[in-house]
């Protein structure tokens, strides 16, 4: 199924109250949770204050959390907008239903993980507005702390006859696995006794065998129609230094084995993941049943639920492909404002509130769909409309000279203060004091946009052309008299006369009617600034679909850097402060390169409307 719009409300999308009394649009996950709460499915659970096995939790207190969810990234890269949806979903459900969301690092693959990614992930979750503190406890965990229990669980499966060591090559195992039309073939090592398998597994643990020479497999059903149940590998030999456990282990659990155990030790109730794990759920349940039967894990076991991952147009979310963009210098880094990484979105100027609104608006379904990028941009505009202070900037400047300025005001160097509201009146909540007005100078010379003058105007053009009058926004009405050009015919100056008595906000200011008002910045007090005009990184809405080379779809106009002039209120902006540049859209003071007062650098976040709409 493909759609560019979020799912519409239906009888299954009734509003559900959250902890703050607000009503969220319901979805199938909320309905499952509400049903479990009503039936008391997890009401008898106990929590010992830290993750642990059945005996550990049995000695604890009744769980103060009504539900437990988790956000379990692997620390092998920077999080992206798809992860942001999962963060908002898992932490949001826990918040709304009196629960706790665990922050857990699934660090079972030592070759690809790094503390750099751990730190960036923690920062991203907190920036989005969530944390893992609840009931006076931190719920920050890492799977590698459970390696001892995972090993114990593997030995239990071996002794109970549910696992065996297989010494076939990877190619032999692949060939024996069968396919959707052909059942698998039993390994010649499948009939070993539990004692033989246990001895072999301990040799694996002790480093007696080479990497890749053998694996531990669950003994389930080689004829299962679900290929994932055909004796999946659960441990492999891999000599690699782990960022947390060092060189303690030379065998590591497979993700499909580790993940359910992590959930159970942490007393997770609702284990929420994306649809690609749906075929793994039978193994998840099989493993939970075996370990609960053996008394290692507590009842009731966690249950896995799947939802459709985020598919966003004009974006790629493959970590491998994003890394290629970085390492091939197609972008400036992981936090390049064109990247869909959370650090990139943050530097671009997206707000946590806009991303939370986006996650809420697109909803949660079990069917794949495409969300148009304009939906994300729309959420940002909605958030910034009543927050971002206004300001004037000239991005493609040409000088406007008011030739009668000295005649009108007595001196060429005379200047006057002009004022404009920092926020429009409709943006200030009733009863709140509006922010102070912006104050800026007007003088004989101002910068205007080059497109605001036409020597020979096209039909319907209302801005500056010889004989026409316009208002300098917040300032005077002026009448255009002509221009000056260089030898190539390029306009170097626009000339006009100021009309005294027409200054905005003064009595009689409207005695001369102007059909247009244009933005401007004073030459005397305006500040030069670097403005980075970012756009979508790809020109193809589905840049890597169907085996396409996504590099071919890079948008050559995704970044244009200009030297602009901005009013003084913008030049004093703090890094990461957002503004609406009047007529141009939303901009942010770059959180890395901008220096207030001495080196203004602004990024375009998004325009005032969708310029990509067909």
3D structure, described in words:
The protein has 614 residues and is an alpha/beta fold. Among the domains are: 28-138 and 308-384, HUPs (Rossmann fold), CATH 3.40.50.620; 390-607, Ribosomal Protein L25, Chain P (Beta Barrel). It is built from 15 helices and 33 strands. The two termini are 21 Å apart.
Total helices: the number is 15
Say what oligomer this is. single chain
Widest beta sheet: strand line-up: 18-31-32-33-29-30-19
Judging by the overall fold, what is the CATH architecture of the domain at 390-607? Beta Barrel
- CATH superfamily (homologous) name of the domain at 390-607: Ribosomal Protein L25, Chain P
Quickly give the structural class.
Answer: alpha/beta
Here the CATH topology of the domain at 390-607 equals Ribosomal Protein L25, Chain P
Cα shape: elongated
Helicity, in percent? 10-25%
The strand count comes to 33
Distance between the termini: 21 Å
Instruction: Note poorly predicted spans.
Output: 1-17
Family: Belongs to the class-I aminoacyl-tRNA synthetase family.
Binding site for ATP: 74-76, 80-86, 274, 309-310
Domain Glutamyl/glutaminyl-tRNA synthetase class Ib anti-codon binding: 388-498
Subunit structure: Monomer.
């Amino acid at each position: 199924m493909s759609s560019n719009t979020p799912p519409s409300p239906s009888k299954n999308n009734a509003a559900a109250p959250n902890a703050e009394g607000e009503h969220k649009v319901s979805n199938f996950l909320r309905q499952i949770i509400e049903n479990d709460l009503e039936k008391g499915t997890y009401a008898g659970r106990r929590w010992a204050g830290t993750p642990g096995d059945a005996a550990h939790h049995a000695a604890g207190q009744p769980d103060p959390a009504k539900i437990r969810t988790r956000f379990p990234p692997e620390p092998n890269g920077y999080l992206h907008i798809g992860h942001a949806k999962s963060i908002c979903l898992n932490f949001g459900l826990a918040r709304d239903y009196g629960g706790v969301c665990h922050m857990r690092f699934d660090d079972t693959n030592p070759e690809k993980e790094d503390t750099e990614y751990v730190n960036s992930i923690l920062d991203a979750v907190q920036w989005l507005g969530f944390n893992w503190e609840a009931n006076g406890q931190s719920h920050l965990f890492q799977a590698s702390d459970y390696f001892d229990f995972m090993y114990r669980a593997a030995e239990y499966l071996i002794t109970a006859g549910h696992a065996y060591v297989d010494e076939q090559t990877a190619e032999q195992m692949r060939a024996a696995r069968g396919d959707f039309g052909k059942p698998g073939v039993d390994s010649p090592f499948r009939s070993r006794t539990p004692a033989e398998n246990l001895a072999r597994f301990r040799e694996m643990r002790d480093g007696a065998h080479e990497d890749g020479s053998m694996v531990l497999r669950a003994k389930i059903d080689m004829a299962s129609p679900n290929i994932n149940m055909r004796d999946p590998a659960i441990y492999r030999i891999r000599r690699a230094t782990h960022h947390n456990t060092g060189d303690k282990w030379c065998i590591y659990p497979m993700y499909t084995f580790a993940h359910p155990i992590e959930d159970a030790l942490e007393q997770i109730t609702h284990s929420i993941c994306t649809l690609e794990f749906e075929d793994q759920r039978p193994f998840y349940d099989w493993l939970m049943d075996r370990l609960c039967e053996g008394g290692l894990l507590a009842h009731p076991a966690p249950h896995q639920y799947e939802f459709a991952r985020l598919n966003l147009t004009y974006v790629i979310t493959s970590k491998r492909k994003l890394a290629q963009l970085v390492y091939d210098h197609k972008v400036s880094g992981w936090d390049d404002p064109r990247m869909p990484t959370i650090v990139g979105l943050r530097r671009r100027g997206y707000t946590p509130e806009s991303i939370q609104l986006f996650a809420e608006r697109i909803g949660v379904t079990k069917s794949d769909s495409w969300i148009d990028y304009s939906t994300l941009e729309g959420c940002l505009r909605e958030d910034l409309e009543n927050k971002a202070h206004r300001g004037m900037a000239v991005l493609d400047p040409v000088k406007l000279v008011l030739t009668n300025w000295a005649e009108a005001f007595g001196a060429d160097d005379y200047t006057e203060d002009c004022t404009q509201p920092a926020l429009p009146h409709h943006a200030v909540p009733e009863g709140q004091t509006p922010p102070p007005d912006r104050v800026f100078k007007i003088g004989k010379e101002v910068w205007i946009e080059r497109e605001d003058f036409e020597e020979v105007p096209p039909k319907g053009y209302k801005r500056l052309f010889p004989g026409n009058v316009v208002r300098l926004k917040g300032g005077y009405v002026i009448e255009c008299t002509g221009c000056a050009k260089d030898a190539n015919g390029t306009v170097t100056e626009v000339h006009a006369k100021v009309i005294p008595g027409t200054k905005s906000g003064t009595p009689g200011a409207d005695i001369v009617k102007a059909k247009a008002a244009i933005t401007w910045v004073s030459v005397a007090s305006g500040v030069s600034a670097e403005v980075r005009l970012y756009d979508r990184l790809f020109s193809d809405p589905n840049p890597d679909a169907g085996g396409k080379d996504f590099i071919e779809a890079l948008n050559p106009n995704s970044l244009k850097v200009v030297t602009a002039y901005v009013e003084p209120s913008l030049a004093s902006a703090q890094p990461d402060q957002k503004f609406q540049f009047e007529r141009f859209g939303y901009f942010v003071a770059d959180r890395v390169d901008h220096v207030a007062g001495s080196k203004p650098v602004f990024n375009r976040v998004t325009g005032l409307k969708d310029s990509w709409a067909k």
